[in-house]
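Q: Hi! First time doing this. I have a protein sequence and I read that you can turn it into a structure. Is that right? Here it is:
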Amino acid sequence: MKNPDFLSIGEVSRRTGLAVSAIRFYEEQGLVQPGRSPSGHRRFRPSDIRRLSFILITQQLGFSLDEIRRRLQSLPEARTPNRRDWERLSRDFRSELQRRIDLMTRLRDRLDGCIGCGCLSLDRCALYNPDDRAAREGSGPRFLLDSDSGTEKPG
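A: Yes, that's right. Below is the predicted 3D structure, encoded as C-alpha cells:
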C-alpha cells in the first residue's frame, strides 16, 4: 500500500522537473537522503521537493555542489525543515548572493563603458594596460573586477 507521507523517485521527478538520474546523482552526492521501502525502493519526504528545488536554483546561480552541500547540512534530516530553518539558510546565502550581485553589477557597468568607448580613448579605458603596469598589483582582470579600482589604471 502506498504511504502518502513518502514519495517515489518518479513522483519527485515529476514534481521537481528533475530527471530521475539527476535525483540519484544528488543522492550519491549526499544532498538528499531518501529512506527505503521494505522492497528497497527510494522513499522521499515531501520536504525533499523543496530541498531538490533549492539545489537546482542555487546551481543555476553558480554555486558549486560543495557549497550547496555545506549549507544544506544546517537543515535537519530527522524532521521537515521549518520556516526558521530555511530563514537561517537564507541568511547564510544572502551575503554571498549580494557579493555576486555587486560583482556582476560592477562588471556590467564597466563593460558598458569599455564597449561604448570603442577604444578611442585609451587614457580612460578600464582594460588598457600599457607596459603591463597592472602586474605590480597581482594577477587577474583587476580593472574590471576589483571593487575599489573603479576605472582607474595603476599609475
